[in-house]
Every structure is written in C-alpha cells, then in structure tokens.
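seq as requested:
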Amino acid sequence: MLSHSPVRGAQTYRPDIDGLRAVAVGAVVLSHAGVPLMSGGFIGVDVFFVISGFLITQILQRELAGGEFSLIAFYERRVRRIFPALMVVIAATLIGGAVLVPPDALKDLTGSAVATAVFSSNLWFWRSATDYFGPGAAYQPLLHTWSLAVEEQFYIVYPLLLWWASRWSPRWTLPVLGMLTAALFATALIDTEQRPVAAFFLMPSRGWELGMGCLLALALARSSTPSTTSVLAPRAVREVLGAVSLTAIVAACMMYDETTPFPGTAALVPCLAAAALIGVGAHGGSLASRLLASRPFVSIGLLSYSLYLWHWPLLAFVRIYRDNEDLPPTLALACVVTATGLAAITWALVERPVRSRSARPVTVFSFAGIATVAVVTVSLAGWHSGGFPTRFDVDTIRIYAAARDINPDQDRCTARDPSTWTPCRFGEGPADAPVSFLLWGDSHAVTLMSAANAAATALRQTGMLAGLDACPPLLGVVWRRPGFHFCASFNAAVLRHLNQRDDIKTVILAARWPLIVSGSRVDSEPGGPVQMVYSDRDTEGTPDNPTLVLQGLAATIDAVHKTGREVVIIGGVPEIGWRVPRRFGDAQRFGLALPPLPTIETVTQRQAAATSIIERSLTGGATHVPLVNIFCTPVCQIEADGRPLYTDSHHLSHFGAVRKLTPTFKALLGD
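struct tokens:
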C-alpha cells in the first residue's frame, strides 16, 4: 500500500502504478460496500502487495547500488508513510467506538487498536478466530489493518536479507529471493488447504505476493534500460498482455467470492496480472498503461492509502449502528463518498506534509513513538476496564454483557486442528472416569455444552464435547466454505475416537439444522447462503441441501450405531433474526422498541424442512429431542429475569442454555 513520493533514492515516477493502485483500492472498497459483481474485490490487497514489493525493492536496489543503503533511512520512510494517517484513523475509530458500541465490542476494538498500533493486527484477528468472510467480521472496525501488519512484518526481514544477498553475491540475489518466494508460495498452498484462516492473515502465507513484486524489480534492475530483446519489447505483446492482465483483475473481482480458497493458486491471477501490468509499463507501456496513467485513476491512486484506511471503519460503524450487515445502496454509496472525502483531507493535511517536511530521523521516530504510546495507553485502559462500561447504567451493562456470556469452556473445548484434536471432558468425576456421553456438532453444540455440563454434574456423570464451528456432525458432507475439508477431517477424527473407546453409551448430535437444510439465514442476520457439498467429490452438480444433510446424517447415525452407541439428535434452537443483547441493550439505553419476536408458528415453519430431515433419519434408531416448545409459548422467549438468553441472533448464552435446557439434559442423561 505504498504510494510513490519523491523521496531520496526514489525511482522515476510511474503514474500507471498510481493508477493500478486506484484499481486495487477501488476493488476493495466496492467489495466491502457490497456492490454486486464485486464479491472478489478483496484481491485488491494482493495487487497492493505486489506494487509495494516492487516499489520498495526499486528504492533499496538503487541505494544498495549507489552505496547509500541505510536501515534507519528505510524505516524513517516507512514511518513517514504509514504512521501519521494510521494514527489519525485509529484515534477516530476509538472515538467512534466510545460513542456507538457497547462495552464488550469496545473492549474488542481497543484490543485490536493495540495490535494495529504495533503492526500485529493480523495475529490479533487470527488468534481471535475472526473469519474475514464470516458473520461478525463486518462489525470489526479495524479488521482491514491486517494487511498493514503483513507488510510491516515482511519489511522487518526483507531489507536486511536484500542487503546481505547483495553483499554476499549480487548475481545470486535474484535466484535466492526467487527460491524464498517459491517457498513462501508453497507455504500458502499448504496453509490454504489445512489452515485457511491462518493462510489468509499470516505473513508466511502472504509474503510470496510481496516477493513477486520484489523479484520483478530485481529483474528490471538488471538493465538500466529495457532490453530490445525482451519479450515485452514488441508493442503487440505489450498491448495484448496489458489488456489481458487488466481484464484478469476485473474478472477475479467478479468471479471470486468467500468460498474461493485463498490465498492459494487463486491469488496467482491478480498477482501475476499486477506484475505484468507493472512490467508492461516499464517497457514502453500499452493502452492499459495509458488508461491507468490517466488523471482520474492517478487521483484515486494518490488517495489510495488513506481511502483504504477510512472506508472500512465507516462501513463497520454504520453496520453497527443499524445492527445489519447489509447496507442499502444509497447508504453504502454515502459511506464510500465520505471515505473518499476524508481520504482527500488526510492526504492533503497529513500524508503529504509529513512526507515532504524535512526532519531528523530521531524526530520522526520520537513522534511515532509518542503517538503509539498514546494509542496503546488509551486502548489498554479500555481493554482492562472492559470497554469503559461506566458509560452506561448497571442494567444496560448487564444486558450488553450477555454477548460475552459464552460457555466458559468454549476456548478450551472448541477444536482448532483435527490432526491434534482430542475430546474435551466435562461434568463430574476424575480425569480417568468413564465417559457417559459425547456431545458432537458445530458451534450450537458448543453452546449446549453449558446445559449438558450442568446436568452431568448434577447426575455425577462425565461427558465429552467434539465441537467445531460451522461443522455439523455429518459424515461425508460439509458446508462449502474456505477450509471446508477441515470439517471432514474433524468428523472423521471423532468417529475414529469413538471406535477406539469402550465407554460412552450415548452420542448426542447438535447443529444449526435449519440453516444447513434450508441454506438461508433469518432476516438481517449477517453472512451469505450456505451450500452443503460432498467432502470428497467435485462440488459441481451436487444434490440440494436437504438431500445432502439427510445422507450425511444417516451416514453418521449408521456409523455411530456400528460402534454400539445410542444416538440422540437435539433439534434446532429458535433463531431470533437479530442480535439479542445488542438490540435489548439499545432498547434499554435509548428507550427503543424491540423488533418483533418470532412465534412458535414462525419458528416451526422455519424448522419444518430440518425437522422432516431429522425425522426421516430416525429409521436408523435414533431419538429426536425438539427444543421449540421449550422456548416458544407461543412467543419465543429471549430473556429471563432481565438477562438475555442469547449471545447473538441464534447462539444461546451460558445463562440461557443452563436456564432453559438443563432439565432437558437431565431427563435425557437420567434415562
């Protein structure tokens, strides 16, 4: 996300690169704003990475060749380029959060602000298990800063590596860097397959994209002028390659979406296209180069860094205020226009003056240090206070806090890696006590563990949990999403574990059945549709969700019965359609009316297809325990004693699960 400025050691200005930057930031912004046919606009970040690696390497290569390389000067330029606008946006985001978000969300925001200020937000969002494309991501105002962290982590090592390689053997610099880039690309392929969230956020899986730009710069630096024998020398070649590359970027924006495994082989398309456009521009240009070098593109390119910084917090805060991920087109457009205006102001009053003003490195680093300490201090105060809860009265704080009232064993018991997974024990009894039952399923199973634990403890039994987010207990069938193979491996590991044990009398299956059967969410709930697919076959031409869920559930029941266990299927929890603690708290805070509550009729209709699938699977000898009548009589209950029963629109809180479902599990386990 580096934009050109006439600093010492800089290369000849390339307006087409600023234009390419405009394409990249435009793709990201339009995608985040929900513009149709821009579902893959996230690839703009990959284009940024290639540009950044190219420009940084050109500057460093020129300094190394002239004997002017200085690590202090390099980091001084980075500080001037990155820090001022970033600190302004972080400060504005913290102020916006203090006004708009409840304590639990502000605590998250302050934590991410600390990570952003020290360029580790990619680690923060990875460790907090935030799926970039998942529900809730749209409400994280600093989520987009993960890419800045990747760049800065890369540039901690890269200048020293380039300096060492040029000192050791200049002619080996390009091959060495090529091998390292290839190794990073191999890492990306493996991680995209095995650890998709880590692959998306972490530098080892993204470094090859920066490395591609670095390699291009080194290759061009072999000659001070473009070679007449270069493959790009003929104009016809440049015209075709430029047009194809620009088209490829646009096509990726339109064809990729949240289900595209990324950043594996799919990331090659935007990265190679960006590198090709830069290379074409270096060898005389093309029509595509001239288009990118035109004033409209260059103008947006100059604002690209500030525009990238501003657009996401604005969109996130509007979504937070409306409690709805989907924005009306006019409102989304207003956010984009506002972000562009703020970007222009930031570029004129912050970015350009700071980069052009002369100052000693110690002064630059001192101001950066002071700004960082200030942001970190305020943010840590917010974190340790729990999100400055004194902004609200006691009742409102208690309501908002329900969003954090999760199963206290959730982090300990939710699976992360199927290759190292072991079941999580709970209930009564020592570590070597026989286990009575296994609760197996997705994040809904994890929330139900609160009630199962209370019941098991009361009955002096021991239970186990096998839980993984977005992974229903269906053998051979998975939810098509990034890393969906992870679910298949997990479910296979659970079945292997059952075959290795001689205890466990009952296996309890739980999932968000209405979602995986219908494929659709409720009302304004964030997240797109759900497509179920076979885990070991091509996704093209697969049956519909109901057919696949029935097949997968029947396979699971049959496999469990073959191990000698009974099977119980827990029905779906009523889905409310709106985030209960947030809306309940806002109603308490502002005196607003709550949205309409679902009734037993609407919930029964919503769950009808899933109930039919479960009932049809019972021919294998399983038992079905529906939950609708426990919550809806006839209006569905969302609170008890002034405390929400849900943490969001469909997950039960710890209080809610224990309060409403402990008797159900006692009866089930007692029998």
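The beta strands are 424-427, 437-441, 462-467, 477-479, 506-510, 532-534, 566-570, 623-625, 639-640, 643-644.
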